[in-house]
Amino acid sequence: MFSDDEEAEIAVDIRRVYAARVPPCSLGQKEPIKPLLQSARNKDPSVVSSHYDPAKKRLFFGLDNGAVCFWPLTESEPNSSRFVGAHGGPVTAICIPRRSDGDLGKSGLIVTGAVDSSIKIWDYQGKVILNPTVCVQTLYGHSGTVTSLVILGDYIVSSSTDGSIKMWRQEEGRGQLVYPWFELQATVTGMDGWVRCMTYDSSNDVGELGAIFAADESGSVTKLMPEALWDDSIQRLSTRMEFKVVHRVERLHDRGISTIRFVAKWDLLLTVAFDNCIRAYDVRTSSVRHCWVNERQCQFTALEVNTEFDEVLAGDAQGVLSIYSVLTGRLMVTKLLTQQPSGAGGAPRRGATPGGGASSVLSITAVLGRQLYAVMTAHDLGLWQIEHELDYNVARGGHEKAVISLYSCSGGVAGPSGDHDYRIFSASLDNTMRLWDPYDMACIRVMDEVKSEVSAMTFYEGWNILVTGHDNGDIRLWNLDTSNTVTLRQHNNTVTSLTLALVHRNEELLISSSYDGWVILWDIRSLRGEEPHMVAKFRAHGLEAARAAMSGSGVAGEGAASQRPSATGATVSHGSATMTATPAITTTTVSAVPPGSAGAAGASGEAPRAALTFPEPEILALRFDPLKKAIVTAGTDKVIKVWAAAGYDFLGSHSGHKDAVTCLALDSNFLFSGSDDCTICLWDTVPAGGQKTHYAGARLTAVGAGLSGAGSGPPPAPASLTLKAPFSSRPLKVLSGHRKSVTGLDVLPSSGNLVSCSLDGQLLVWDYVAGQVLHRFAHDTEAFRCLALRYDRPEVLVGTMQASLLRYAVHESAVAVPGLSRKGPSRPDGTVAAVQEAVEALSLAGGAEDSDR
Asked: Considering its fold, how many domains does the chain have in total?
């Protein structure tokens, strides 16, 4: 977020409770509106103005056909709308008096103004038995459209397009009458053109009567102060008031002001104009405190305030709600509230413009309970709940498209000052990488990629290098100290995963994987003047693995080819796939089935057909296990493969998922995998034991002679070679809790609990030994794409498909299993073995069932 004040960083969740449509004809109407008022017979009536009565929980609205109606609101579904009365033209202003507003409030009357320049006072309670609605009085005095109404005590203040403001006062001496009677008392003129809107508010201090602000089409604002008059006959202040023009702000906007709102608690005057911006004018200092420009470059059409959370809510012509913080002056969140107007059966509504997009927000009004708002468009009513008491925060102001990768620094020493480095990096489909300040989660640096789409990201903390993978197979190294970039090219398809691995002592390499099925190891450090270069490359998933499986090995994925340059510049090949030798390259081949056998012939014939029938497997996830010195890969072939980091030999595979494996995580000896099948599987990364197979040296020699190129013979084979057969394992445990694809996994450092996120908008904290969900964070409107754990505080960062960066506080005491710590320096000896025994014991009963799958 944007403030050091944690209270100002609370996230906002916006969800719709229900929606209703404006009916062509409301209930309670004694007789149809005259045809003269229905100016467009083929057009449904549209809402022009609205006002909420908190005492009776009614939302009044005026239509363009002259009708005045209301909805009795509830928190479930609204009741049918009711008809009040009709003007001779569109109803442009509605005002409901408060109970403290003299006889108007006591009688529960309704005051409306319209294009016909008249002001009508209605009694819907029905003091006349034969008709539930009575037009008490019609006030004539304006010569133009009545634009707004304010009720203050015994006064009705009205503004009009005739450029005047009129004060109507209740006439005295008529206490015996059923209804109060109003007469014109004063007129304020001198405005620059139309008076478009007015607002009133009071601090409720003793003796303080508040202030009225009126805005005109020139962008200026006039302040009127009511003052109570002294009555000599009773020697006290009377109910009579005098309205004085005390201040005028010239040209607050460059264009006409359409909406105005005075908030006495903040000493702020909020104005919306046709220049697509909102200005917060401080009435004490006579200066503009905030100016908010609509990021969609369209007009704001509605305004509401939330004094509890110090927020300004604004709706615009594209149907989007924007919430601004008054304390920080920043945009907090946006939400699309409306859709394209439609009629019955999804057809376009009569009178709607084809391709016009979402409906404009006409009004936003706080109604019913706390944090409930009625949002009205020209044809629809929606009740929305804006929830603030959430268990996550939002870092906004960053990406515009889906966040695909997050990286949180582990706290190493950064720079000569010796400060700990807890910076956070994010990458998005908007082709930007952003650096976030861990203190207040403010975006402090943006790096733009212009050549290709970003598909993966990691960070080399020791050398301050940001590494990104791209959809064209490139890997880009961003030196944050010098702002230089280096491009590495070896992959021929989208780079899907990047990780750093301490393969050997003082040798930290970058490992990359791609849709092309290859895994490549890079040395990206510029030591001894040596440029970043490829160290090794081997095929982990693809056609070679399928050919080896068909040749009779019986192990899925066995026999993938690998290449690594030797100290002399030669290329050494491992596995059962062959590499063609040249005079400059010596090749040694180890094959489980001799060439020329039936198995080999079958493989050569079946492999092309398999390639035509099935798409090439793609690598989606990659991890390096520092304990086992192993590289783990997984992808669309539903199989997890394990490779030795020294020599890149194929160690074995894990099978059990029913769909593509999308993410991996490690915790000591345990491997976790998430999949498109919505499950999480627990594995022993490299199972102990395994059958050993002996091969004779003559057989190896024959194999080498049959596959080597002309002019070069195979190297001498040893007398015997002992190989450990690749393992093939089933999951120790299967965790089911997500409804959509699992996209992110990690392990909390102190408790050892597993954290997972999914496209279903859930962040789950697991006790994976018991297979139970300890805590569930849910977000209905976001699809979670990736996650990262912070090392400076108990917090999980989640990137979403909706371009949000969410922050979930995960307190270890609340989600840890009592008496069991599975990770960290305080881990007791033998804990890993104890946990493994517990997992194996829990999985014994379901092992047979898993095998049947």
From this structure: 2
